[in-house]
Specification:
By secondary structure, the protein is an alpha/beta fold. Helix content is 17%, strand content 26%.
Length: 204
């Protein structure tokens, strides 16, 4: 589960989680009330890495993949960087409210059914934008990553694309291998080696 926001950035004392109810765990979490105490383990593994020389960041969020993108955008704004966010969802009712985004973030929207923004997949918005980005970051479902990998391969570029991979984690410390994924360097663990990987390193 990704950290959605931290406040304040200089000395964090609060954090927000954004999630969809998909099972017993998230249903339980959704029913917690103010004042309830829960145990958290984390942060685990490696997060997104903004290079010091980067000035223009391109963020791609598919569905609930907006969760870590918000915190990343906050960090980019804190550093004085320019940010463009490509926000996608199956339909308008599943879109993250654009009005909650920082005004300094240039946001473009796509929905699969065309009920908001451009009709189509969020990766289709990428075609004319990636050339101006120093770095690209993405979070979304596996099919989105496959489409993104095919698109970047067709451009034959060497641009870094960092993606946050979701996997069920048994232990969170790399002992159970329940979150292993196949990469060009062999099996890697999402909880320890990730969840952020280079797009081209993962075998989709």
């Amino acid at each position: 589960m990704s950290i959605h926001r931290v406040a304040p950035l200089s000395a964090p004392t609060a954090l927000a989680l954004l999630f969809t109810v998909v099972g017993r765990g998230t249903d339980w979490l959704a029913h917690r009330q103010e004042g309830d105490v829960i145990d958290l383990l984390g942060p685990l593994g490696r997060g997104f890495n903004i290079r010091p020389e980067s000035h223009n960041l391109l963020l791609i969020a598919g569905g609930i993949g907006i969760a870590p993108m918000f915190a990343l955008a906050d960090e980019g704004i804190h550093r004085g960087l320019r940010l463009t966010l490509l926000l996608g969802a199956p339909t308008a009712t599943q879109l993250y409210p654009v009005e909650l985004l920082r005004r300094s973030v240039n946001c473009m929207v796509a929905t699969e059914d065309g009920s908001a923004g451009r009709k189509g997949m969020v990766t289709e918005l990428l075609a004319d934008l990636d050339d101006g980005a120093d770095q690209i970051f993405a979070c979304g479902p596996i099919p989105m990553y496959r489409a993104l990998a095919a698109l970047m391969q067709s451009k034959k570029g060497e641009k870094s694309v960092q993606v946050s991979v979701e996997a069920r984690m048994g232990c969170g410390f790399g002992g159970c291998y329940g979150c292993a994924i196949e990469t060009r360097s062999g099996l890697r663990l999402v909880c320890k080696d990730g969840p952020v990987f280079e797009l081209n390193d993962v075998i989709w």
